[in-house]
């Protein structure tokens, strides 16, 4: 037992300092979800440079922020969940998401939907619609509230 304690002590001395630090405050106490984003949102389209995608079955592509620091998706026949952090002026960063990998029917937009959500950098509400801007000018996803 003494040998194990000594090994752990020595390992602690050799670890880089950043491994020994506690988690940052934003990870422990994430900012609350803005009130405007409460509820479930249906994906209705993507406006990208040179291409517009209209979603024919929006009820198969849902997004929500169930609690501070979290995002949840229904991506056709799959589900995904991960971290999300809100910043100033509509900034939004979506973290790594865990996703089921069921085989959806041909023509599914599930993979595109989840990938696009992971690229979001900002959000806004316009005329009752949630707009999620993708990074690097890749387009804007449009959502309507789930009825």
What descriptive keywords fit this protein?
Lipocalin, alpha+beta, 20% helix
Task: Provide an overview of this structure.
With 147 residues, this protein is α+β, with helices and mostly antiparallel strands. The protein has a single domain (26-145), classed as Lipocalin (Beta Barrel). 20% of the residues lie in helices and 40% in strands. The termini are far apart. The relative contact order is 0.18.
Radius of gyration: 20 Å
| Approximate helicity band | 10-25%
For the record, the CATH architecture stands as Beta Barrel
Whole-number tally of structural domains? 1
Q: Given this structure, which CATH class is correct?
A: Mainly Beta
Report the order of strands and helices.
HHHEEEEEEHEEE
How far apart lie the N and C ends? 61 Å
Task: Briefly note the structural class of the backbone.
Answer: alpha+beta
Q: Report the principal-axis shape.
A: globular
Number of helices: 4
List low-confidence stretches: 4-20
Number of separate strands = 9
Summarize this entry quickly.
The protein is an alpha+beta fold.
What's the topology here?
Elements: H1 2-14, H2 17-20, H3 25-28, E1 40-48, E2 51-54, E3 61-64, E4 70-75, E5 78-86, E6 92-99, H4 110-118, E7 120-126, E8 129-134, E9 140-145
Antiparallel strand pairs: 1-2, 1-3, 1-9, 3-4, 4-5, 5-6, 7-8, 8-9
